[in-house]
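Sanity check

After download, print the first record. It should look like this:
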Amino acid sequence: MVKEIERYGIPIVHIATITTISTSVGANRIVSAVAIPYPVGNPKLPQAEEQAMRHELIDKALNALTTEISEQTIF
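Expected structure tokens:
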């Protein structure tokens, strides 16, 4: 599905815990996630630290959206 959306000129960022799978399915912009049960968070952290971690991950994904790439890239 990622390839089809990008075919229309809409950039996609795939946040994934197992980046090799993202690569094999053809995602072009890949952001490495935290862990399989909680890809964009860590409930063991204090709330403030977890929110900061989430913000950092989303900032990385937004940066990936605006970065010109010519091949699959893991951010």
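If your output differs, re-run the checksum step. Summary of this record's structure: The CA atoms of residues 21 and 27 lie 9 Å apart.
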